[in-house]
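## Example record

The block below lists the input lines for one assembly entry, exactly as stored, with component labels intact.
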Amino acid sequence: MTPRLAARGVLLVALAAVWALSAYLLWQTKVPSSLHLPHLDPRTYFTAAQLRATASFSRVNDLIFWGTTLAQIAALAVYARWGIRWARESAAGPIGTGMLLGMLGFALVWAVELPFGVLDLWWQKRHHLSSVGYVSYLFGGWFSLGGQFVFLCFALAIVMGFARKLGERWWIAAAPAFVGLVLLFAFISPYLTPTHRLHNAALRAVATRLEAEEHVGHVPIDVETVRDVTSLPNAEAMGIGPSRRVVLWDTLVDGRFSRPELTIVIAHELGHLARNHIWKAVGWYALFAFPGAFLIARATRRRGGMGQAEAVPLALLVFVVLGLLALPLENAISRHREAEADWMALRTTHDPAAATALFRRFVPATLDEPSPSTIDYLLLENHPTIMQRIAMAQAWRQSAKK
Amino acid sequence: MTEHPVQLVVEDDLKRNRLTVFFRLILAIPHLIWAFLWSIAVFFAAIANWIVTLIAGRPAGSLHRFLSRYVRYLAHLYAYLWLVANPYPGFVGEEGEYPIEVRLPPPEAQSRWKTLLRIVLALPAVVLASALGSAGNAFAGGSGRSRTYSYNTSSLGTAVAVLGWFASLARGRMPKGLRDAGAYSVGYNAQVLAYVLLLTDRYPNADPTAMLADVEPPPLHPVHLVGDAHDLRRSRVIVFFRLLLALPHLVWLALWSIAAIIVAILNWFVTLFAGTPARGFHRFLSRYVRYALHVAAFLYLAANPFPGFAGEAGSYPLDLELPERERQNRWKTGFRVILVVPAAVVNSALSSALIVAAVFTWFVALVRGSAPWGLRNLSAYALRYSAQVNAYVFLLTDTYPHASPLEGTAPAQLTFDETA
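Predicted structure tokens for the full assembly:
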């Protein structure tokens, strides 16, 4: 073994250790490791009709997911093989041509995904979960594709710019640049979401109490109007530092949910902020960005590296495949954070009954399967299943009694 | 391609009588009333001619003569209104009596399918005619009084008329650029009207260079187009996603514009005091103006490939020749922002035509994989003028933008016979 090879090996081990240590620190949670979730039977909490409806809804959703994914990969595989021919339609230099090829790849994916998107919309409309018109969907999709083009060009300009300066080591500089961008986006995204302040004074008072109990400081509670497009209830914690806020969809505060149930929701979202989940999400992104960028750099070497426009179609395919492979892990990390936020909500509200009622109400409102199949769980669930969430409420009740 | 059967003949000498220019709109009132009455008759004659052409395969001689006179008369009237010509026109559309003349073909056999679908087929040309000046609307508006002779106020014809009015009053001459632009509008409108009224089944040709082929070209402007004009091939995929693909360029152009405005202000001070723009500023603004042309050419389908982001000379099939840094008149520099207003008005009118041309080119290119030559040349005209306006605003030249649809030609080199 040459000293150079040995040094590389040591460096690799050191980097792996840093990666593992960082992952370990990010994985830390307030949920007690000794907590045992009881096994619950969905039939105890949901009627047979509800379970049948969610299973039927989920079956078609699964088909749409797989159809979309396979069509996307097939389209990108074809594009990776033959997409380079579009380079002749460019009068720009390598980076500009790379941007054109990247945009055309996205356009192709958009085109092949379109039938599945329309099918998905039809399926949601059939279950009264969406009120988006087909024309609005098509035009909305078109304009959002334009937004994606702009971001893609920006990303490619960074990657190809570094690749032309640093050669194969572009990923060392590009990964931190993307982490910085994700951080910036995490900061500004609340300002880009059109919301208004929560009008319900009683709920605002509850939020103020929860803020104090979770030690998060003042966090504005905003409402986003979505009822024109969907009936799904949802909420999210957004922003970092001064841009932090909790956003409730107006479908959540339309009278379907009781005040104790909404208290659980707000406590859950404040729990995300109390446990710095947005920072942690950026941290996880950083942990995946470095190896991901490295793998793309390796995969595109035979096409001259990311400094060449010819590498872009292949890079798109590699990026999407890596994303798909990382999906189970990404979902596991997300579920871990969501479970912690649920635990924080229970710890703050001391109201497992309201939590159970809330999660039970989610099933008819969202048609989420209470206990999905393993493959769905791994690939599609970024929150604990409804039964896991109810089980956590029961477990908290048991631990509180002790 | 054979010559279009509807030909424009320009014999105007640019001289204008100030008195008739001043009262032009009022003097035209009898003509407007007469044209309105004539339009009503033409409406019924056109229907009769349509039925005859559909059955017999060619227009009736008497109807053809009547409608030809109407088309000619409207061309005279618009030429008078828009100050494209000076003399007061006759009321009967006599051939050969007016400096802006339209030559129309004799009755000839026409395709019955084209005749049957004429109104639908004519729609794109009517829309384009409306952007250039609404002779097409004049016929369509015959059935509704409020729409008859109501101009599209942002049309090229209206811009030519308003600016030409001031210029003619001041100088007693119509500027050649405006006259040529107005003549082109008159000619295109005549072709559209002739097509709608079944005087010919040849589709109107939007190509300004073909329309004004017999008109003397203006002198070469220091800002002019270069590159491969015959690159008509268009990739269908790139055409389909054109607007979205242009988005990164539009974002970049917007950012660059902010910097360009700041640099232009600094350059204005430098040019005002030193008499010559600063070298670095001139280079930077030249690139910006060229880049803006590349992006617009791509966006409006006047060229095919995806442009670069740096505005490099020679990098695009529709490119711009820009002058070197040169001494400029301080008065023109000082009042540049005011002086540019008339050019901006023409530019705005041409932009409407450019958008219409781009929309139609989009459809045609998607089907045929190539851009129509006429629309391409109209787009190139609008883009060239826009680039000249930009170059003037950003102090790259103090030569005023030339509104003529014709690309200028360099003056012939004088040679001296050494033996003489």
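The interface with chain B takes residues 86, 89-93, 95-97, 99-100, 103-104, 107, 142, 145-146, 149-150, 153-154 of chain A (CB under 8 Å). The mean pLDDT of chain A is 94.
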